[in-house]
Amino acid sequence: MLPTAAYTAFIKRRAAELGFMYCGVSKAEFLEEEAPRLETWLSRQMNGKMAYMANHFDKRLDPRLLVDGAKSVVSLLLNYYPPQDEQQPDDTLKISKYAYGRDYHFVIKDKLKTLLADIQAEIGEVGGRVFVDSAPVMDKVWAKKSGLGWVGKNSNLITPGVGSFYFIAELILDLELEYDGPIKDYCGTCTKCMDACPTDAISEAYVVDGSRCISYFTIELKDQIPTEVNGKFGNWVFGCDICQDVCPWNRFAKPHAEPQFNAHPQLKEMRASDWQEITHELFSELFRQSAMKRTGYAGLVRNIQFVTDGPEPVGPGETNSAELL
Q1: All domains in the chain, ordered by first residue
Q2: Are strands 150-151 and 128-131 parallel, antiparallel or unpaired?
Q3: Residues 32-77: pLDDT tens digits?
Q4: What span, in angstroms and rounded, lies between the C-alpha atoms of 165 and 185?
Q5: 197: annotated binding-site residue?
Q6: Using CB atoms within 10 A as the burial measure, which of 202, 209, 223, 324 is most buried?
Q7: What is the pLDDT of residues 283-294, one digit of tens each?
Q8: What is the pTM of this model?
């Protein structure tokens, strides 16, 4: 077996042992096709007030600017789909499933650091970096290039027989490996995600207007939520799973096997009235080391009030800004 084949087999085997659902490899190179798409998306201001998405434009498109001598991008998927008995009922205020347990950044980064250390122990001097949704890396594009799925009309990566309820992470290595190829798009004529989005964030297939997404309003936006989307959030107070829940491919989703993603037992018992009365102490208990920290207690209270009572009027001399962290 050639060294590249042996190295690739080792990495994929070790990734599976660490709990990753799938592992694929693509060549580290400039993303020529993505450059105009990203530029157009930003020029249409679909990033809203997420100014950071316009930063490091070149690095987003070329991993060799992130890791000297980069030759391979190893993409990994980690399932977070919760067991049915842990999922929140439809008659309560809801948070996105990915935020049920411990913050995925911590969980995945630990696994990736272990994987990189194991690669270096097995192969020798290998340079590289680990990435978990916190650096200018186009994770869905790299996962698509490595054959882990296709990017659907809701802009999520979708994997045949699995769906899309998983996290994507990367190792960028200065090691040459055997590269996988992309698979075809199986969305077909389906438009369920587009039809179901209550804020019309997916008005064009394969293009999501981030500035109109419920996840943007409830997590990223630090100002008051615009009155124009009042009544369109349903019962979502942190993130949104609508476009994934309606996707036919997610009927194949299976419960994760990562204990750190298990929800606090009290979460599924929370009713709308409990959410409206949530205290800072209970928030800290339920969401210790959770991705919910991104919006914070004050941000969650803002979201709950918006969903249950509608936006508060802004009086003369007042601003629309709010301290949410």
Answers
A1: 3-81+98-173 (3.40.109)
A2: unpaired
A3: 999 999 999 999 999 998 988 888 899 999 999 999 999 999 999 9
A4: 18
A5: yes
A6: 202
A7: 999 998 999 999
A8: 0.92
